[in-house]
Structure formats: structure tokens, C-alpha cells
Amino acid sequence: THFGFQNVAESEKASKVAEVFHSVAGRYDLMNDVLSGGMHRLWKRFTIELSGVRAGNKVLDIAGGTGDLTRKFSRLVGAEGQVVLADINDSMLKVGRNRLLDKGISGNVHFVQANAECLPFPDNHFDVVTIAFGLRNVTHKDTAIASMLRVLKPGGRLLVLEFSKPKNPVLSKIYDTYSFNFMPLAGKLITNDADSYRYLAESIRMHPDQETLKAMMEVAGFERVTYHNMTGGIVALHRGIKP
Ligand code: SAM
Question: What is the pTM of this model?
Fold first, then answer.
């Protein structure tokens, strides 16, 4: 705004996101399983299926964190392909890199510290870009979506896996109670950090709903944008193609 309030809020958001992920990095994988009851594995599996990644492809997994998607892509693209796991947060990157190396994943995977809003990659470079549970943490989402479009090859696909809005009002109510009560409690018990999980619940509530995100991708220039609701719309997977 004229008075700069917007900028203060924006820089606060970025430093809050940094603080949250530095704090939770070591316990991130455990928390994912606990909070989603293991369901994040199914949501990610569907993302892999819809990505259509094949041997020899170049894939960018932005906000890749501890590397669940990267690990699967690494196997699919094979020795001729390449997967870049990029994340803004060096604690998350470190946990991700160690975890993948422990699992014997190397060779075709590269780790890059990068902000989704200004990706340090050439134009028309990747066959597939994924961002899983990352976009809601990005301050300037439109800028990030434009940056992802730029680095994709024509015909390349963007997949956005993110919390969304449940369709059923009863489910929505239950989910709201769950996120604002159980999430901070589990955060307190497992990471001794209720605050970070309160932030995550809040960021889920603030994130654009299915149709809004679809429109944002279309405005950025993606074609054939579709989305699939999972678990009643608690999570949605959006896909768009670069013309
Ligand atoms: N993709 C992984 C997954 O699905 O398990 C990790 C998701 S984790 C909830 C969100 C990740 O987004 C964190 O690792 C965080 O550091 C990263 N992140 C937040 N803002 C970002 C930005 N502007 N650019 C790149 N990564 C960002």
C-alpha cells in the first residue's frame, strides 16, 4: 500500500516461513505422517502418476523439502534424465539431501537453494515442474507461477499439490477444528513447537480455493488447467500445460 503496510506484512510472512521450516526440518517427515495419517503418500503418488514423467525427462521439484517427490522422479527419469530439488530453506534442503543420499539416490539429482519467485534456471528448460505443499508458503504466488511457466518447455506441465477447500460443509467444519486444535497440539508434542503448526493451519485457511488457483494459473498463461480434489477437497492437485 501507499503506507508500506503490505511490504511489512510480506517480509514478516517470508521470515515466519523461514523460521517455521528451520524449526520443523528435523521432524518434518514424522509430522507429515502423523498429521495426514499417512495420506500424504497417496496424494504424492497421484501427483507422480499425473505428471507423466518419463525416462530422460528434466524435472524441477520446487519447495521440494525432504524430497518425497524427487526420490520417485529420480527413479523414473533414469540416468539420462535430471531432477532438481530446489527449496528456499537450507535446513530443509540439508535434511532432504542427507535423506536421499541415505536411500542411495544420487547421480541424476541436484540440490539448489532457490526462491520459487525467481527461479535461477534458463527459459524452456524443464519437462515437468512440481510444487507440493509449497505454494501456500510463497509470498508472491503470481510471480512464482509466472517463474514456473518460464522455466518449462512448451508442452511442459506444472503440477501444484496443495491443501484446498473441502466441498462438504460438514467436512469443512471438522477439518477446521482438526487443523486449529489437533495440528498445534501434535506440533507441541512432537516438535515442541505449537506455534509453527498454528501458522501452518492459518496458511491453509488463507490459501486460494480450487477455482481461484485455477484462474491464477490461466492468467499466468497456462493452458488446459484442470484440478482433481482428493480426500473430499482437503487437498487438490492442479495441472496446467505451457503453450
Ligand atoms: N514438497 C515437500 C513435501 O511435499 O513434503 C515439502 C513441503 S513443505 C510443507 C514446504 C516447503 O516449501 C518447505 O521446505 C519450505 O522451505 C519451502 N518454501 C517455502 N517458501 C518457499 C519459496 N518461496 N521458494 C521455495 N521454497 C519455499
Answer: 0.95
Binding residues for S-adenosyl-L-methionine: 66, 87, 115-116
How many domains would you assign to the chain?
Answer: 1
Domain residues for the domain of 139 are 5-241
Note the pLDDT of residue 192.
87
| Residues 175-211 pLDDT 10s | 989 888 888 999 899 888 898 889 888 999 889 999 9
CATH classification at residue 237:
3.40.50.150
> Ligand 1 centre and the CA of 232: distance in Å?
23
- Which of 21, 30, 70, when mutated, tests ligand 1's pocket best, judged by the most ligand atoms within 8 Å of its CB? 21
Long-range contacts of 100-108 (CB under 8 A, 24+ apart): 100/67, 100/70, 100/71, 100/74, 103/71, 105/67, 105/70, 105/71, 105/74, 107/79, 108/74, 108/77, 108/78, 108/79, 108/81, 108/82, 108/83
ipTM for the whole complex: 0.99
Atom of ligand 1 nearest to the CA of 21: 16
